[in-house]
Amino acid sequence: MREALFVKRNTDKWRDIEQNPTNDPDELTDRFVELTDDLSYARTFYPDSNVTRYLNGLTGQIHRNLMQNRRDERGRFITFWQYELPLLFQQSHRMLALSAGIFLVACILGWVSASHDNTFVRLILGDQYVNMTLENIKKGDPLGVYDSSDQASMFVQITLNNIYVAFRTFVFGLFASFGTMAMLFYNGVMLGSFQYFFYERGLLLDSVLKIWIHGTLEISAIVIAGCAGLTVGNSLLFPGTYSRLESFKKGIKQGLKIAIGLVPIFITAGFLESFITRMTLPPVVSGSIILLSAAFIGWYFIFYPIQLNRKRQP
């Protein structure tokens, strides 16, 4: 191939690489592979040409960027939690509000339904759980279910189940958000009917101070998982200026990062449920744990992302 034709065929690609830098590791790798192929060809057929020297310099620049990016990856874990996830989540606050709204409406419907139909709680929670709880109430330990299992095995089972529920809520967003909304609705109705069950027996405060020790993080995380699923569904339904496929890929990436960010919260909630909830704590201690958990959720997922985004504004 003549040198002029080789240059003509690749000029646009080289110019794009030079004028549109990126820090994406995958993109950098692809560019480096393409440039090294071009450089090898040029060194073989045009060893003393200007285009060979140009490609050598451009390839060296991409290589330095690639190495620099790899060094930055060592702090990737900290950067993800400190900056990337909060900034990403700030873009999804509207979906969070929608997710919380669906869940709250479902809770109210569950409460109202349980108050008007004596069989509703059994339909939602199951006869076995209701009968066991009624038996525990007779024994004077209405929430004795938390004392019935080994702590370590209970921690593993609860944590894995919660993570499974959250990721299922996220994945169901693939069905144009309707699957995620259904999951939020079901869990909300379950919570509403569950709390009414204890309210009806004069045990609402006792149940709140006991269950919400872990439930504050657990329920918040399910709502946030709903936000992740709605983000995916919204990207499919409303692509905006992107093509539907590009918008969908972007939504999947954003929603998945949010879902992954919930794993430590579910681990903490599982620990609290397995080791702390079963303990008989003074109301002030239980209330403090609940308030601290709620404050963390509000700060990290709402106020900190807003504050961080404002600092980035020019």
Question: Which characteristics define this entry?
Answer:
single chain, 314 residues, mainly alpha, 2 domains, 13 helices, elongated
Description:
- The chain has 314 residues and is mainly alpha-helical.
- The protein folds into 2 domains: 3-75; 91-312, no CATH class.
- Helix content is 82%, strand content 0%.
- InterPro entries: SpoIIM-like (IPR002798).
- The chain crosses the membrane at residues 95-114, 154-175, 211-237, 258-277, 283-303.
- This is Stage II sporulation protein M.
- In the predicted model, the low-confidence regions spanning at least 5 consecutive residues are none
Shape: elongated
Order of helices and strands: HHHHHHHHHHHHH
What proportion strand?
A: under 5%
What portion of residues is helical?
Answer: over 70%
Number of E-type strands: 0
Number of helices: 13
End-to-end separation: 49 Å
Largest sheet properties: none
- The assigned structural class equals mainly alpha
Give the C-alpha Rg: 27 Å
InterPro entries: SpoIIM-like
Transmembrane segments: 95-114, 154-175, 211-237, 258-277, 283-303
Keywords: Membrane, Transmembrane, Transmembrane helix
Pfam families: SpoIIM
